[in-house]
Amino acid sequence: MEKKYNPKSFEDRLYREWEESGCFKAVRDDNKVPFTIVMPPPNITGQLHMGHAMDETLQDTIIRFKRMQGYCALWLPGTDHASIATEVKIVEEMKREGLTKEQLGRDGFLKRAWAWKEKYAGRICDQLKKLGSSCDWSRLTFTMDEKCSRAVREVFVNLYNKNLIYRGSRIINWCPQCKTTLSDVEVEYAEEAGNLWHIKYFVEGAQRALVVATTRPETMFGDTAVAVNPNDKRYKDLIGKNVILPVVNKSIPIVGDEHADMEFGTGVVKITPAHDPNDFEVGQRHNLPAVRVMNDDGTMNACAGKYEGLDRYECRKRLLKELEEDGYLVKTEPHTHNVGHCYRCRATVEPIVSKQWFVKMEDLARPAIDAVMNKKVTFIPERFAKTYYNWMENVKDWCISRQLWWGHRIPVWYCADCGAEICKKSDPDVCPVCGGRHLKQDEDVLDTWFSSALWPFSTLGYPDDTSDLEYFYPTDVLVTGYDIIFFWVSRMIFSGLEHMRKVPFRDVLMHGLVRDEKGRKMSKSLGNGVDPLEVIDKYGADSLRFSLLQGVAPGNDTRYSDAKVEACANFMNKIWNASRFVITNAEGRTVKPLGEIKLCAADKWIISKLQAVIRDVTLALNKYELGVACQMLYDFTWSDFCDWYIELSKPALYGADEGKKDAAISVLTFVLENILKLLHPFIPFITDEIYRSVPGTDGTVMLKDYPRYNSKLAYKKDAAAFEGIKDIITAVRAAKTELGCAPSKKVSLYMVTESKRLISANQDSILKLAGAKDITFISEASEAGEKAVAKVLPVGTVYIPMGELVDLGKERERLEGELETVMSEIRRADGKLNNTGFMMKAPKKLVDEERAKLDKYIAMREKILEQLKNL
RNA sequence: GGGAGCUUAGCUCAGUUGGGAGAGCAACUGCCCUACAAGCAGUGGGUCACAGGUUCGAGCCCUGUAGCUCCCACCA
Fold this sequence. Notes:
This protein has 871 residues and is an alpha/beta fold. Strands 7, 8, 9, 10, 11, 12 and 13 form a 7-stranded mixed β-sheet that branches. The chain has a 4-stranded antiparallel β-sheet with strand order 6-5-14-16. The chain has a 4-stranded mixed β-sheet with strand order 27-26-29-28, with helices on both faces. A hairpin with a 4-residue loop joins β5 (165-175) and β6 (180-182).
């Protein structure tokens, strides 16, 4: 082993070895139970960020754990074509070259897009490898691969045939910059300061005027009515009459509709069915025409008259000026309101009536809700089920058509001869209705999330009845961020149920966002993102992984900090050095199985601790409590193994007794090997690198069995007794520090104790670790001399003669302090034991423990009192 | 308007069937002792936001209050 921990010297090499040896490959094995994770496919446009790093680390840890536990573990990787995000990027790139989509044409553009994909899809995969991701690369899938495209077609056609996909004119969200529709979840709302403009509309044939309030005056060209509340006494008599739309001088009706809120504004609302979801509904109720006033790029169309061709905001500005000059504008009131923005380009989204394709959600939502209610799918933590219900129960139809080129094209053709609409799995040559040959495919592509929704089964071979699908589906756990529940998780659930008749996964492990040091979201605009690859370069992948898992609870956001990674790097260093200690000391010695050696108290103690850790870590991992598991392993490795056990082993290791040496090195090796296995899922590189040097091991640790709790190795009594030895050592160390005695000065110890055998057996350890030269058993305090400090412990009293360093006054003070501590413990235990409620209702085990504590403290109290008396 | 989360040591956060408050970092003291100074030993530091309630027992369960954060819906 190299003297220094240097992750760069082995991480890439190990990854190559793992990959080449086929360790990550999952092949159906009917003697094993499958455990499947499908990776949330990163966008091909993307670069690895901290969010990915967290997501991938969680998945890798789980899959490595399951693999070691003997499952047929499949972690299926892939990438997403990310229709809109990718198209936006390519268009930007083209713009720099002075090119437009139109210039290239659809085919030319797609050619370029595929070239882009070839160039960048590999990048994110390489980055995942740097992290140590043990996914089965032979199954790498791209959402626009042939198999996914087949699945998309199959699903589309099936839903179409069931009338669950339909085409219709609805209000949709339009991004004027991306020039495409967006689904409801792709719109992000933000409060914006704006105005509420009060505009006068004259009533036809009367001297009255109604004043409407609007935040988007430019849409007035599309007004086809004004509405008042039918119960509103102010305007009731006007219902059925008309108003004259200013500027355009068009006559539009006054309708009575509950939508008009009497309390808001003037109580009169202009109705623009083509540009507002509520108005659209009002329009439906009153048979109003929907008049679109905007073009796809957010400029005004011919309906705006002289404003035609102007951008919507420029039009607003000039129109307001005109209205003001003509006396129509009666009031401008500041008003903050929620404005929708495109989640890709941030442009303000326009609600527009448009003919689009929709998935009818009502029938799909119900079973998806039930599946979670019935625990076929479990959210971890549970609270996210509520978020899910809330959305599912109120979900509206899903607009799936996008006016883009990069994506799955909608498998619908229109016959120019007879007007038929044909939806088919395979491209039709002739019209099945009229036999005509003039078929034209729908120009639009599908929402990216339409193919993502099929991911858990499209990747496994759907629509074919593959052996993989039968074996690996439903998958076991989906690991993803809570920000993606609506986009993806919910859609996978209803899609799985609809097309596979089974939920896509049993558990959904949610994690939060990785924020920056100050708790802010990492973002490009803030420039506060931390590049995981740079962190890996500096500290190694294991340190980054551990820092992302340690102290993290499911569903909670976490902060990234260099300090945290540094602390983890120190842990790696610790593991490295401890291993080096064990391995170098094992050179030339025989490492024996535990059964063949005589275990000393310290051995039994550490082995016992190890069993508890194995049990608890496994339990925690099965509950996806990775943060808790990390903490337990950290503490065990650093405190118990390194700080205590390695130190305890030194007397034997450096002594002359060959048998003891062999025993010590055997236990050290045994525990180290287990630590490496236990830690491997979290920090795969360092553990495997070390494992290969551990005597008696062969091959990679990633295919070894995960340690199992062995009750025969629990040694509960011996382990408990050994705590007495640790107490003695700690007490002597503390006493030395307290009195300012140099740690290197060897002191003599005198003990009054009933555990002479235990202490004698561990004398070497005590002397070495406490920095003492001898132990003498005595029967009373005076034998230790006058200038001795007394440490009263459960195992007995230790007297440490310190000569001139002892200040009797301070010693009295200290003992009185300890007495007070012990007394308060006695009061606490006594109180409990005298509480009839506690005695009657508390579990017996607890009562017994409490009684034992009381006895222990009473004994200590007597000893301290005696000590004080002697001072 | 609806919903969720958070509030624990100076800082960042764990604490999952309710049974003596923890870690890392920071601070203080002392140590290079043949794995590790990226280290070791020791020490200090918390009315677990607040107020009630349930219970023999509450950081944990229930109700309410306050502050912060997030999500959804809607606001012409």
